[in-house]
Design brief:
Blueprint lengths: L3 E5 L3 H13 L3 E5 L2 H11 L3 E5 L7 H12 L3 E5 L5 H9 L3 E4 L4 H20 L2
Parallel strand pairs: 1-2, 1-3, 3-4, 4-5
Helix pairs in contact: 3-4
Length: 127
Amino acid sequence: MLNKVLLIESDGLLNSQLATTLIEGGFMVGRASSYHEALEKLDDFEPHIIVTNESLSDKNGIEASLHLVNRLGMPTILVGNDHTDAAWSKLTESCADHYIRLPIVPTVFVARVKAILRRYEEHRCAY
């Protein structure tokens, strides 16, 4: 069974690039261009992990990540352009599992998603 990734990205080109990378990496991808669209897709798509940009068209990505983590308890990756140490503060604020800086390296991006999913699966099985 393929792991499902819900990708929340307002930029159409980046949304397509990230989705293609994830699909080529062996994931099933649900795409949303806004936070509210993502909320509508959650029940039907039932993702295993969420990847969201820190800058969304209708909500701050950090707030969106925090809300989704608290609501769903599922792994979340924050994607953004911050190349300073402040990126790690954003990670802490958002309760996301990882911060990936743009531009992404496709193999690293896919490997990080897989590693986070594996860690969550191992943690779930331990209980």
